[in-house]
Amino acid sequence: MATRAHRMSGRVAPSGPSAHAAPPLLAAMPALTLIAMLGPVAAGLAGTLLPALGYLPAAGLTDWSTDAFAALWAWPGLGAATRLSLTTGLFATAGALGIVTLILAGWSGTRSFRLLERLLSPLLSVPHAATAFGLAFLISPSGWLARLTSPWATGWDRPPDLLIVQDPWGLAMTAGLVAKEMPFLLLMALAALGQADAARRMRVARSLGYGRVTGWLKTVFPAVYAQIRLPVYVVLAYSMSVVDVAMILGPSTPPPLSVQIVIWMGDPELQRRLVAAAGALLQLGLVVGALAAWRLGEMAVGRLGCLWAMNGGRGRRDAGLRYAGFAFGTLAALAVLASLACLGLWSVAGFWGYPAPLPDTLDLQSWTRHLPGIAAAGGTTALIALAATLAALVLVTGCLEAEHRSGRAITPRGMFLIYLPLLVPQTAFLPGLQTLLLTLGADTGLLPVIAAHLVFVLPYVFLSLGDPWRAWDGRNATVAAALGTSPAGVLFRIRLPMLLRPILTSAAVAIAVSVGQYLPTLLVGGGRVSTLTTEAVALASGGDRRAIGVWGVAQTAAVFLPFALALALPALIWRHRRGLHG
Amino acid sequence: MADGLQLDRVCIERDGTRLIEIDRTVAPGEVLTVMGPSGVGKSTLLAFITGTLPAGFSGHGTVRLDGTDITRLPPDRRRVGILFQDDLLFPHLSVGANLAFGLSENVSRAKRREKVQHALDEIGLPSFFDRDPATLSGGQKARVALMRMLLADPRALLLDEAFSGLDAALRAQMRDLVFARATDRRLPVLMVTHDAEDARAAGGAVIELGAA
């Protein structure tokens, strides 16, 4: 056995790509990131729990009681609101997952698939509120679709009295969520596909005589689903508790639980905040329950799937499913695109009588009227988004670099922590965070809003930057170190410049996430911070289509501009460096 | 203490299993070839010497360079040059900037350009300073990578399948160039390869791994 000296030198042999001890700031990055991400969530949940139990010193309430829950139970809309939260969430998730599965099963690897992928990817970043508004303008009885088909096909010469949007079952809202969440799940599934060894599994299945869809479902789906489980949970939690989409497309009497919580939060009577807190806890319970039910469903489907795989059915006649998947995918993509077009059209519409398919005149009056407001709100939006994005990039690159230097890869538990802020419903902890800030007297200024945005921006930066960061060839670092470059030198002179493109893409994702945030801005900003999104959603009840069109287009542009820059900048900066254009 | 690269009872383990044991000294200007099929951990030995052993592996023993124990030094202080099968020229830097990257920071600004230009002349690429490395041929890239490493003034040279990516004619040329430079500078060379032709051309001692 080795002598003591050998053991000593053996122990100091680096486990990672460097024998440098990470500098303290870098070593602290993972802890700082966790605090930035989970601190507000934990504080917000505490700030929800206390008022729900009657404790709200800011309002002079210090007696513990269950009155808030009693008031919540007494609210006549509770049953319907709860049911809506559950049905919209579960149906939207199942719908989006189902369509993504059929598209992948039927088309992955084909040319049509790449077309669909190109159609759907940009839709990922379109803000939820803009999509919802556009969809409402598209499918409502006085919407574009009705105009395009009236009166020659429908016979309508004025809008029929149909409740297509804001229907009591939340169908329009569910449809909107399906269209908006599908691109997200598709992108996550695409990333998972590479690790699922899909091509070879399919070759085996096909050679054994299995149909395309059946073979894919039986051999590839289990591997892909295992990888996208957390994103699916995110979609479920989000769809159950979304506020802006629900305010635009969802029913109003009663609204889904999440919307009612926000209404209670905005009530001048502070007692109502206790009911809101109780509602927020109910919302949390609902989401936890639905996630548990979904997990049980997964197990049941897994069992049945094994039996199905063993029965040997080849599914040679499954082509219908294939085309159904393609049709639904295209429909969703076209719906979102048409919605955006509809917003754009209304923003420049002059007089537009019903049922004319197009406005009589086009002008820029709406734009001129709203431009000062858009400039002001746009400035605030940009400031918040840039600050949150910069902070997130510093924290995440710090974490990834610390991971690289320590040689310890992220664990499944770590992955779960990254997803956690997206799994806790916003309506469950943001009201508490507002109450807490109010109690501390810190409910002013942009800083709390930026911190709240950071909670939601961080996970997405982690998810979008992690893979390209880890895929970088570590031998570049070895070569640079062998040439005498310090670890910091390797990071700043080699790694970051080589990863410029994914870093900028990540930044664009982060900005899109921040721009789209409604509830954190509204609640944590105490209603005094106006962004493009809060202003746009505030127009929902007014029904001024031209104003909504203008603000919706502005909101969408605020998201697309960074993506365009993320594409253009690396192409410009590295225009003489072919090795960096993948 | 002996000059050259001394591997004093070096042993690499993974999960308690010994992959490699080696106890040799490579004298200045000599080549030691480590041969064996892929997967026996030849590259891990080189990673131990450069100080970049991946997580999951543990190394024991002492590495000395010209008598100095470098086992505990960080990778950037070891002055051990390494060439891989891929050229690994940094794609965001021009050819000249890649070479200047290797040059010690103590070389004055005025001298840098001159030294890099001289290096380019030496490998027959005098007009390549501002070129994008991606536009070079495989042989040209390999030569630039070699010069970049030599400009950092290493005291030992590691070759990790360095010639495997080149076709037969280029391969012989590149081998001659590398070994000639190493002999000129009296560098100890440790070469890992699976190709017997490389070993013969090196002309030094050969260790076979994975045979046992």
TrEMBL record, chain A:
Subcellular location: Cell membrane
InterPro entries recorded: MetI-like (IPR000515), MetI-like_sf (IPR035906)
Regions crossing the membrane: 21-46, 84-107, 119-139, 169-193, 230-249, 274-294, 323-354, 374-396, 416-440, 446-465, 499-519, 548-574
Domain annotation ABC transmembrane type-1: ranges: 80-292, 378-571
Location, primary (coarse class): membrane
Domain of life: Bacteria
GO biological process, one term: transmembrane transport
CC terms in the record's Gene Ontology section: plasma membrane
Assigned keywords, A-Z: Cell membrane, Membrane, Transmembrane, Transmembrane helix, Transport
Pfam families xrefs: BPD_transp_1
SUPFAM superfamilies: MetI-like
Membrane topology, as annotated: Multi-pass membrane protein
Similarity field: Belongs to the binding-protein-dependent transport system permease family.
Protein name from the UniProt record: Putative thiamine transport system permease protein
UniProt source species: Tranquillimonas rosea
TrEMBL record, chain B:
Gene Ontology molecular-function annotations: ATP binding; ATP hydrolysis activity
Gene3D superfamilies hit by this protein: P-loop containing nucleotide triphosphate hydrolases
UniProt domain ABC transporter: residue ranges: 2-209
Domain of life (superkingdom): Bacteria
Pfam families named in the record: ABC_tran
Alphabetically ordered keywords of this record: ATP-binding, Nucleotide-binding, Transport
Keyword ATP-binding found: yes
InterPro entries in the cross-refs: AAA+_ATPase, ABC_SmlMolc_Importer, ABC_transporter-like_ATP-bd, P-loop_NTPase
Protein name, entry field: Putative thiamine transport system ATP-binding protein
Source organism: Tranquillimonas rosea
